[in-house]
Structures are given as structure tokens and as C-alpha cells.
Write a structure and sequence with these properties.
The protein has helices at about 5-20, 20-25, 30-40, 60-70, 75-80, 80-90, 100-110, 225-255, 270-305, 310-335, 355-360, 365-380, and strands at about 115-120, 130-135, 140-145, 155-165, 170-175, 180-185, 200-205, 210-215. By secondary structure, the chain is an alpha+beta fold.
Length: about 400
């Protein structure tokens, strides 16, 4: 399968994903079928190298595909993040046993498997983990409660982390149907409601020894996995801006009417409607441009065999992209309401979902920290922090 084949597969799927997206978000209808179709179409395999039977796509290829999905349904796009991030972690790992792990998981992906996430916890300051994993004979038992389990409800496999008896983090992956693994649809954010980012409970779950995996992100050490995951969120924002543009143009053409003192007889000819749509378009355009430029920066670091300075540059470029896309998506979603009158606020149209979704994604990572890190780099060459946000 080639990247071009994936693009053609997405051409076929996009109308199906787009259909009813506003209704699904309004009625909380989880897009199980859309995500399953994406997996069956091979999109999760984009970055798998040709040597393993994959398309061998670049980060820019993934971001290009994701932009198109996010532009019709940002919930579906964000729900894909753990699956794509898992592949990126496999590519980046240099630990003992990493090659065996790559072969095993790449084969599963090529068969259509979906991996979800259950790593973060509520109340854990600075990413503190309280879930525990303890030895039980040749295997283990894990207990704890996770939140922000993005994509878990759609997944075949759940990737998570717990602390062992020495308080060291242990990563492992469980099959969805494992006894004691409980997934809840209780995500209550105002936006991105269908990302399935709710609670995962580990109720004394058995973990087999071969389900323990190598750690790909280590404290104090930057890999390209984190910039990739952060760029994923920025791309979702860019997609929201594009979706807001499409809805603004559609509303102006099909629903809006000129106000009484307008010189136009059709809303599409009103200069202020044109101004609003033009500004939304410019913001969507700039958001798309910066995520593609940041993707190219990550690809350059890969091409240079992860040369440390280029890895830092990629992290800085992604931070800039996140700042701009967050601002662009929020403003585009606000300007959407200037293309019509009170009717734009009708629940049937559900146009407020764009702002709610953009605000929710933006709150994943404080944008002031992003700008400050970029400023420190520009002023004194200080690399961004080696945390999960950079």
C-alpha cells in the first residue's frame, strides 16, 4: 500500500465522515464506524516503513491526511492521536527488544488494529501517576483509574502506564476485552465530546509479561514523539478553522439574509459578510501552512538521524504552530457568527461546536508556555523543556 492509495481511500471516506458530524456532536453519537473505516482503509499505517510492509510515509504525509479529517470532524481526528503516536513511539525506540516490538505491532496495524490511550490521571500534578503494577508469579496485576483516555472506546488495544514496586513507570498494552479493564463514556468537557477521552479503570487487571513494552519517552530526554503528538493537536486546530470556514460559507449561501440597511440583496454579496468569510479563510490558510511547515521540520530531524539540534528546532517549530493554530481556530470559530444574525446561534446548526472544540483542544497545552519557550529559544538559544508538552 502506498501513501497515494491512502489518500484515495480517504477521498472515499471523507463524505461519510462529514455526513452528520454536527448532529453526532449535538446528540453525543460516538463515531465508532468512522474510526473503524479509517483503520480498515490503512490510514494508521502511513508511517510504517516499507521494509515492514507499510507505505513508508513521512510526518508531513500523516499531517496532510489528518488535516483533511479534522476539517470535517475534529473529534474523529483527535481520537486517532494515540494510534498514530504509538507508531511514532515504535519508530523512535532504540531500547533492547524494540525491533521485535516493531515487527509485532506493525503487523497488527497492517491487519487493521486500533490502539487507544489510558495514560493520564485526574489530580496528578505535573503528570504524577498513582496507578500501580505489581508482580504476581510470572506475570503482573495492575490497579488504578485513568482519565483523558483518548480513543480508548474505539480501540482494540489500550496503552497505559503504572508504577512498579520501585516507583518506576511501566508501560504496557492490554487487549480491550481483558477482564477487569473497564472503559467509561464519561468525558464531560464542553468540546471534543466524542473523542472518547473519559475514564479507564484497571480493576486488578492481569498483565502478561509479554504485554510490558519498552519506554519510548524518558524524563529529561527529548524524542520526536512528543513534538509529533503536539503537532497532532495543532493540526486538529487547523482542521477546526477550515471546518468553520466551510460552515460560514455554507450558512451565508443557504441560510443568511442581508440586514435591513445592507446594500446587498443576497448575503453573499454583503461586503461585511465577505469580510468575515475572508478573515476566517485567511486564518484557516495560515493554520494549515504552519502545521505543514512544522511537519517538514520534524521530517528534517528524522532525515538527519535525530541530530539533537534539529530535534530541538522541531520542538520549537511545533510550539509556534500550536500557538498560531490555537489563536486561528478560536478566532475563526468566533467570526463564523458574523456571517448571519441570531439564526446562526440555532441549536439545529450547532455552529458553536467549532469554538467549543477549539477551546477544549487549546486547553490541553497552555499557549503562553509555548510562546515563552519560543521566546527563550530566540533570545538565548535555550531549548524548550523536555516535558510531555514539548
Amino acid at each position: 500500500m502506498s501513501v497515494q492509495t491512502l489518500q484515495r481511500n480517504l477521498d472515499r471516506l471523507l463524505p461519510l465522515i462529514a455526513e452528520g458530524a454536527a448532529r453526532r456532536e449535538r446528540e453525543r453519537e460516538l463515531p465508532f464506524e468512522a474510526i473503524r473505516q479509517i483503520a480498515e482503509a490503512g490510514l494508521y499505517t502511513c508511517r510504517i516503513p516499507q521494509a515492514y510492509g507499510g507505505p513508508g510515509g513521512s510526518v508531513a504525509d500523516v499531517i496532510g491526511l489528518l488535516l483533511r479529517i479534522a476539517a470535517v470532524d475534529s473529534n474523529v481526528a483527535q481520537a486517532l492521536r494515540p494510534g498514530f503516536g504509538f507508531v511514532e513511539g515504535l519508530l523512535a525506540s532504540r531500547a533492547e527488544g524494540a525491533e521485535e516490538e516493531r515487527r509485532r505491532w506493525f503487523a497488527r496495524y497492517l491487519d487493521g488494529a486500533i490502539v487507544g490511550n489510558a495514560g493520564w490521571e485526574v489530580g496528578g500534578a505535573n503528570g504524577l501517576v498513582s496507578a500501580r503494577i505489581v508482580a504476581e508469579g510470572a506475570h503482573f496485576r495492575a490497579s488504578g483509574s485513568k482519565y483523558y483516555s483518548t480513543g480508548a472506546l474505539y480501540a482494540d488495544w489500550i496503552s497505559t502506564v503504572a508504577l512498579d514496586e520501585q516507583d518506576l513507570p511501566v508501560s504496557f498494552v492490554l487487549p480491550r476485552d481483558r477482564a477487569g479493564l473497564e472503559l467509561l463514556d464519561d468525558f464531560d468537557a464542553m468540546g471534543q465530546r466524542l473523542t472518547a477521552s473519559g475514564t479507564t479503570r484497571l480493576n486488578n487487571v492481569q498483565v502478561f509479561a509479554d504485554e510490558i513494552r519498552t519506554r519510548t519517552v524518558e524524563e529529561g530526554r527529548r524524542t520526536l514523539v512528543t513534538p509529533f503528538l503536539q503537532l497532532f493537536l495543532a493540526t486538529v486546530q487547523a482542521g477546526i478553522a477550515r471546518n468553520a470556514l466551510d460552515d460560514a460559507a455554507r450558512f451565508a449561501r443557504e441560510h443568511a439574509r442581508p440586514i435591513k440597511h445592507s446594500t446587498a440583496t443576497r448575503s453573499v454579496d454583503d461586503p461585511y459578510v465577505q469580510l468575515s468569510v475572508g478573515e476566517i479563510s485567511a486564518r484557516a490558510f495560515s493554520a494549515e501552512a504552519v502545521v505543514l511547515k512544522a511537519a517538514a521540520s520534524i521530517d528534517r530531524a528524522w532525515a538527519a538521524e535525530l541530530e539533537p539540534t534539529l530535534v530541538d528546532v522541531a520542538a520549537v517549530d511545533v510550539a509556534q504552530a500550536q500557538f498560531i493554530t490555537g489563536e486561528s481556530a478560536l478566532k475563526a470559530a468566533e467570526l463564523l457568527f458574523d456571517v448571519g444574525g441570531a439564526s446562526t446561534t440555532g441549536r439545529a446548526h450547532n455552529l458553536d461546536r467549532h469554538w467549543r472544540n477549539a477551546r477544549t483542544v487549546t486547553n490541553h497545552n497552555p499557549r503562553h508556555w509555548k510562546a515563552a519557550a519560543v521566546g527563550a529559544w530566540q533570545l538565548s538559544g535555550t531549548p524548550p523543556p523536555t516535558s510531555g508538552l514539548f
